[in-house]
Design a protein that fits this description.
94 residues; mainly alpha
């Protein structure tokens, strides 16, 4: 149980960091703001770690252990969703 909470924490932090980097450094999602971009990234990270990673990779060998592949898919999902939200916002809300 402790390992699963730690994985979820890593997914939240990785997604939030990607949202912050996308807003502050790259300039994505300026219309929704920094905090909303971080929250969107964190939610997308959890979605990637909980839903996408088990579909594509499977479960780790030791139940509850840290999963690097799940972290990768959490970050990839966050990046894709942040990019898609930027494209939607740029298209309809500017």
């Amino acid at each position: 149980m402790q390992g699963q909470r730690m994985n979820t924490f890593f997914w939240l932090v990785a997604g939030g960091l990607l949202g912050w980097i996308g807003y502050s450094v790259v300039g994505l999602n300026e219309t929704i703001g920094k905090m909303a971009a971080m929250i969107l990234g964190a939610m997308a990270g959890v979605l990637g770690g909980k839903v996408v990673a088990p579909l594509l990779v499977g479960n780790p060998l030791v139940a509850g252990a840290f999963s690097g592949s799940a972290l990768f898919f959490a970050m990839a999902t966050a990046a894709v969703i942040l990019g898609a939200s930027h494209m939607v916002m740029a298209r309809w809300w500017r």
